Amino acid sequence: MTDVGPALRHRDDAEGRETLATIERTWQSPKGFFGWFTHVNHTNIGRRFVATALIFFAIAGVLGLLMRWQLSAPLNEVLDPDTYNQVMTVHGTAMMFLFAIPAMEGIAIYLVPLMIGARDMAFPRLNAFGYYVYLIGGVIFLLSLPLGIAPAAGWFNYVPLSNKEFSPGLGVDIWTTMITFIEVAALTAAVELIVTIFKLRAPGMSLNRMPIFVWAVLVMSFMILFAMPSVIVASAMLMMDRLVDTQFFVAEAGGSPLLWQHLFWFFGHPEVYIIFVPALGIVTSVVVTFAQRPVFGYTALVLALVSVGMVSFGLWVHHMYTTGLPFMGRSFFMAASAMISIPSGVQIFCWIMTLWGARIRFEVPMLWVLSFFAVFITGGLTGVMVASVPFDRQVHDTYFVVAHFHYVLVGGAVFPLMAGLYYWYPKAVGRMLSDRMGKWSVGLSFVGFNLAFFPMHQLGLEGMPRRIYTYLPEMDWGFLNQLATVGAIILAVGFGLTFWNLIYSAYRGTVADENPWNAPTLEWATTSPPLNCNFAQQPVVQDDRPLWSWPERGKRTVVGGLRTDRRETMVTTLLDARPQSVQVLPGPTPWPFVSAVAASVGFLGLIFSPWFYLIGFFGAFVTFVFWFWPRKPYRED
Amino acid sequence: MEMQKVTSATGLGTRGLLLFVVLLVSGCSGVQSVLDPAAPDARLIARLSWWMFASGTFVLIVTLGMLLVAVNLQRGGDRIDVSFRTSAIIVAIGGVAAPVIAIIAVGVSGVLIGDQAEGAEDVGLTVEVHGNRWWWEFRYLDEAGEVTAVTANELHLPVGERAHLLLKSDDVIHSFWVPNLQGKTDLIPGVTNSLYTEPEVAGTWRAQCAEYCGIQHALMAALVVAEPREAFDAWLAQQAAPAVVTEHPGLDVFLDYECGECHAIRGTAADGQKGPDLTHLASRETLAAATLPNTPGNLGGWITSTHKVKPGALMPPTAPEQQELFALIEYLGMLE
Amino acid sequence: MQAESDPQQDDLILAKQEGREALSAWAGWVMAPAAWALHQGIGYAMVPWLCALGTRWPYHALTVFAVGLCIGGALMSRKALRRSRHIRPEHSRMRVRMMALIGLMFSAAAFGGILVEYLPSFLIDTCNGVDR
Amino acid sequence: MTKDIPVEVAVDASDITRFAPHTHPLWWGILAAVAIEAAVVANLLTSYFYLWARTDAWPPEGVEPPPLLWPTLILVVLPLSSVTMWWAGKGSDAGRMRQLALGVSASVLLACVAIGFRSIQIAQFDILWSDHAYGSILWAITGFHYTHVVSAIVGTAAVAILAWMGYFTPERQLGVVVDTLYWYFVAGVYLPIYLVLYWAPRLL
């Protein structure tokens, strides 16, 4: 703590150093192995979320490569069909639940408090709890694959295929319990983010001054809040069907297989946008910074984000066009599905107009964003096509759809995520990522991606269905599949370079400045990496780009009078962000970890016996009570 | 296929956009292809597809073109500030007006074409399609709804007549899809769905299960044969009749090894219902759900090493003595 | 407590209107999506019933109701927008304008969305594909 | 660069309250949790109607809808426990800590009575969860609400113990406020469940 850091440069005297040292001690996380389990600071938890998600991404990516290897030639025998189906199921599930959502949440957890000028999130301990839940659930889920007991019913687990009768063994049980468990983590993060954004914004940051990224995270969190419950209900029903012989999905006993599809897709469709909405926020941040001008159409972008969130709840039936629903009912969803093109179009053109004629710096994050444009627009256009009932009845469940959603998800979410990694890495680590490796990574990923997934459109139209472990030589799909496999390898090399870059630059990268890109938002107003307390003094803002307007105003406004000997952060009003009260945040504690372990015992046990419901419930409850029980000496004002 | 020559000629280094164009312009003639329609419904959808590909490509080029202009406009020069009004107009045209046109176009064309392509008028023949793990059964119904003939993995239809397929499943969800003829519809336990189709020309196409249904989903297919009415009638009469040979050493082998527990050969003691009806096995072109050509060698291989051909298939492999196997193959080969 | 150095009376005028504004500025946010969701959800669920009934008037009534909700939302948002016209762009209460503007646009979007979803009912027979 | 710009203290937090239980972030957190639970209930009730719509007989042949007596008694007891909860909150706002302790304890007792009634009523169900989808959804919704009442009781019991220990003060009553909010939800959500499970099959 000898370096006072720029945050307190105005008081770079003995007293200033002393004050900052006290605050930093207050906000410090314990060191050592056991200390690791007590961390609650959002920067620690956010970093862990992102790192874990990236590891899961790599694993799921390797599974994707395995599938591509198997499919590179007709009647290939790299994987036997059962293994292939397990690999396919785990690839899809892991990419969705273990990588995409947690990675976005992790970035949000890391950045949102910094961006809104808060010192931490509203419920730091809940945050830590969510992480352990995610880690435990994810590891157990992935372990099922090497043990050979992984689920093999596809990531959307259609009943009756996933019933006990047609999927005996533990696979689907592991899916239902662990996915529900991981969703608990997603829900805690969503609650946490909503409350943090609502109540902990820096004074002056009224709703119309929030960075677009924060708006995107807010929309994402609300979507999680309303979408996840339906898949939790669905998987709980499936769990009970398998465990205690309920009849929710059994047609002979009054149940309905279509109920599962409705519940699953009512979650499943928003899920795609849950992944994609924060990516839009990342794109906006990058576009603004590298065009060096305020975003065009702030209000329009907010409108677009919120309407993407809302409309996404009205599209789920377009996953069920082929299930024999009445035609008029389906036709309602045709227009609704195509409607998502309006907010997407508005956003794309707002970005184009922001970039129009600007002096753009083509740094690596900007290059990722440019590849995002090309790939995402293609995916969006095929998305409008599959909104059409007759066309969808031909391409549904074929490789055309595989191509479409990889264009949307990889192009629309992973490329922006990569842009985000390159953009915010200097802030989080304090060093720049290698530029050369970054450029190679963008180029290889872009070429590899298109080579891997573009031919799949053609394959789908030639009749290749999804989720097949092999195909006959007479089908003539061999060449395009080979092409796709080559592309997948190039794509993997591209992403792999970024992974290596992340590790390499942590030690060898050039040291990053406080604000290396000259960005306008608050996360760049503190040291790189941020102080334990984020901001020595919480900022007060007058517009949505404080770092550009402070120099113009010639002064930087801050909050004074927060105590240094305990963790305090400002609470402001929801809409106008007027100062309202001060929240005292809790310090390091192991209880979230203990609670997560207790809850995971309950969930894991459910695979074997329904009684673990009670064990987990009461186990978690007891630890919660310990967690919340006020400790003496009670807080005094 | 023609398309492959074109793509390989341009080489692997082809850039995305070029590839896009190349792939699109090369129609291909497959037995399982959306872009090679052989029925009015599929033709309508194929035409719609081409329209959508063309307009999609146009939109992609325009939007990316604008982006390229935007980012290249001022490389190194001074920055240009576009007025709020101009920007707003461009956003309104590109982001609102164009999508609205697209929505209306997609919506109206989808409704009209979709409705027509699912049309249920002038239905002649009715066939029950049963999805099983992992093979198809077709039961031909007469006017009264009685089953006249049962066959497996080979659907025959008269040319130029609209057939009504009743889709049923007793195990998991499957989806019946003949890309050349019609879009797919799912077979869902507890529900009977309908699909209407009308081949325009005589020919053979491939039907594929399109909804993931377990370990052998990949190789769950069937042949769809469209033939003129007379040929079809003859075929149906033949399929409706009991087995042509009911006394043969091979049949004894069949019964000894309990094949009759699952398979039926009408006119003999074999009356199992779990597996495909084999009464006229020799009349079919393929074995194992359109996976192998129907030759004596393949039949023997399928009987003895079922799980090498299709791991996880529900038929247990049988290992008769060589003599018995030959008799069995010979007998099954006589079941015209 | 204000971070801005705005004239005090500005805040006073605004504070008086706050209650009404808070409601009307949010009207479009709540009513428009609700109208769209109702129209779509109920419309979707009522198709087999409409087919059995042999008439479409319940659906028309539903559409009129949903469109009415949208128009109501739009009117209230417009009112909030007008009332907030004098707010200076650098004031933090600019967000009232933003909320109202977004509410207005939501109402317009939902209105359009409902009409586009309403359109097919004129082009096709209700009973197509209602087998069960 | 930011660090070179002179600083001005625009908001002084020294005098701003550290105790604001009614606008505390935790209050909003519980509200979000309630929104999640409400979404779960909405999904369950929608599933109930969906299954109903796809079945010929609901409840299935030979099964009676659950009797009305006990559920209706619960409909009295649970709101009553909310009233005592509200009264307890009033007390803690005004600094009458005895009232708080009494009110909270009364709520716990009333909820225990409700759980008792609920158990009787579950024993009266005419159908098992494994017999028919109707039984499955009936038991699932009932079990869901049962679990919530139990967890509300456990949480409130903890608050009651703290209240008797004299932990709470007018400033330090966040626990009471959030517990009350959750309690209102658990009591309030019973109404739609009651109407759907007990009246809908009789009336529709």
From TrEMBL, chain A:
One annotated GO molecular function: cytochrome-c oxidase activity
Main location: membrane
Signal sequence bounds: none
Source organism, top-level taxon: Bacteria
Keywords: Cell membrane, Copper, Electron transport, Heme, Iron, Membrane, Metal-binding, Respiratory chain, Translocase, Transmembrane, Transmembrane helix, Transport
Family annotation (InterPro entries): Cyt_c_oxase-like_su1_dom (IPR023616), Cyt_c_oxase-like_su1_sf (IPR036927), Cyt_C_Oxase_1 (IPR000883), Cyt_c_Oxase_su1_BS (IPR023615), Cyt_c_oxidase_su1_bac (IPR014241)
Residue stretches making up the Cytochrome oxidase subunit I profile domain: 36-542
EC id: 7.1.1.9
GO biological process annotation, one example: electron transport coupled proton transport
Compartments where found: Cell membrane
Membrane topology: Multi-pass membrane protein
Catalytic activity: 4 Fe(II)-[cytochrome c] + O2 + 8 H(+)(in) = 4 Fe(III)-[cytochrome c] + 2 H2O + 4 H(+)(out)
Pathway: Energy metabolism; oxidative phosphorylation
Function: Cytochrome c oxidase is the component of the respiratory chain that catalyzes the reduction of oxygen to water. Subunits 1-3 form the functional core of the enzyme complex. CO I is the catalytic subunit of the enzyme. Electrons originating in cytochrome c are transferred via the copper A center of subunit 2 and heme A of subunit 1 to the bimetallic center formed by heme A3 and copper B.
Family classification: Belongs to the heme-copper respiratory oxidase family.
Protein name (Swiss-Prot/TrEMBL): Cytochrome c oxidase subunit 1
Taxonomic lineage of the native organism: Bacteria, Pseudomonadati, Pseudomonadota, Alphaproteobacteria, Rhodobacterales
Automatic annotation (TrEMBL), chain B:
Subcellular location: Membrane
Reactions catalysed, as given in the entry: 4 Fe(II)-[cytochrome c] + O2 + 8 H(+)(in) = 4 Fe(III)-[cytochrome c] + 2 H2O + 4 H(+)(out)
Residues in Cytochrome oxidase subunit II copper A binding domain copies: 122-238
Record's GO cellular component terms: membrane
GO BP terms in the entry: ATP synthesis coupled electron transport
Electron transport keyword on record: yes
Domain spans labelled Cytochrome c: 245-336
UniProt topology in membrane: Multi-pass membrane protein
Keyword Metal-binding set for record: yes
Gene3D superfamilies cross-referenced by the UniProt entry: Cupredoxins - blue copper proteins (2.60.40.420)
Any GO MF annotation of the entry: oxidoreductase activity
Keywords (A to Z) from UniProt: Copper, Electron transport, Heme, Iron, Membrane, Metal-binding, Respiratory chain, Transmembrane, Transmembrane helix, Transport
Membrane spanning residue stretches: 49-69, 89-113
Family: Belongs to the cytochrome c oxidase subunit 2 family.
NCBIfam families recorded: CoxB
Functional description taken from the UniProt entry: Subunits I and II form the functional core of the enzyme complex. Electrons originating in cytochrome c are transferred via heme a and Cu(A) to the binuclear center formed by heme a3 and Cu(B).
PANTHER family in alphabetical order: CYTOCHROME C OXIDASE SUBUNIT 2, CYTOCHROME C OXIDASE, SUBUNIT II
Official protein name in the record: Cytochrome aa3 subunit 2
Organism for this UniProt entry: Tranquillimonas alkanivorans
TrEMBL record, chain C:
Protein name: Uncharacterized protein
Ranges annotated as spanning the membrane: 26-47, 59-77, 98-116
Keywords carried by this UniProt record: Membrane, Transmembrane, Transmembrane helix
Organism of provenance: Tranquillimonas alkanivorans
Automatic annotation (TrEMBL), chain D:
Compartments where located: Cell membrane; Membrane
Alphabetical keyword list: Membrane, Translocase, Transmembrane, Transmembrane helix
Highest taxon of the lineage: Bacteria
Segments passing through the bilayer: 26-48, 68-88, 100-117, 137-169, 181-200
Family: Belongs to the cytochrome c oxidase subunit 3 family.
UniProt GO BP: aerobic electron transport chain
One Gene Ontology CC term in the entry: plasma membrane
Residues of the Heme-copper oxidase subunit III family profile domain: 1-202
PANTHER family, alphabetized: CYTOCHROME C OXIDASE SUBUNIT 3, CYTOCHROME C OXIDASE SUBUNIT III
EC number in record: 7.1.1.9
Membrane topology recorded in Swiss-Prot or TrEMBL: Multi-pass membrane protein
Keyword Protein transport: no
The name this protein goes by in its record: cytochrome-c oxidase
Annotated PROSITE patterns: COX3
Pfam families found in the cross-reference section: COX3 (PF00510)
Molecular function via GO: cytochrome-c oxidase activity
